[in-house]
Structure formats: C-alpha cells, structure tokens
Amino acid sequence: MANKQTFNEATVKHLETLEQYVPIVARVHGKNHLEFHDVHKLFNAINQKIKKADSQLPDLKEEFETLREITDNYTVPNDVCESYEAVYTMLAELDQAYQD
Question: What are phi and psi of 59, to 5 degrees?
Fold first, then answer.
C-alpha cells in the first residue's frame, strides 16, 4: 500500500515542474511520439486527483498502471530532449513513491 508521506514528498518535489514541462513536451514531441498525448492526458488526470484529494492519498493505481504500459515502464525514446527525459523520470519517481 502507498505511503502517504513519501508520495506527498514526491508530489511537492515534482508536481510544479511537471505542470510546466508536460504541455511543452507534448507540443514539441507529440507529432513524433503520439503516446505522449496519452501521457499528457494521464498526467492531467493524476494532477486533478491529487489536488482534489487535498492532503489525502488519491486513488491513482489505474493511472500509474496505464502510464507504465504506454511508456514501456518510463523508457525514454532515443530522439527526445532532456525535458522529455525529465518528465519520465519525475513520473517514475511519483509512481514509485505511490507504490511504496
């Protein structure tokens, strides 16, 4: 079961940066990496649930399962920028914190 404190720490650490990076990466790489549009939608859903949950732990099991599937466990494509890689790294850390 998820550790609320660990997940909240990861959220504080990454959410604001993800809010900035995800739309930009979608705009820059979405044409060549169609899966990133799904990543963008899932991130928006995760972000919304986190904000609605306030200080409670939201139910994100399905969203993280889908993210792992469409990103091949956060495998970064070879032809992308550092921001794309950073998004996958931050999402993987959120996912891991949620699982812990």
Answer: -85, 105
State the pTM of this model. Answer: 0.93
- Is residue 26 over pLDDT 80? yes
Q: Are 22 and 87 in contact (CB under 8 A)?
A: yes
When pLDDT is cut at 50, 70 and 90, the band that residue 56 belongs to is confident
Cα gap 82→84, rounded to integer Å: 5
Query: In angstroms, how far is CA 50 from the centroid of its own chain?
Result: 12
| CA distance linking residue 95 with residue 63, whole number of Å | 9
- Distance (Å, rounded) from C-alpha 7 to C-alpha 96? 8
Check: CB of residue 39 under 8 Å from CB of residue 73.
Answer: no
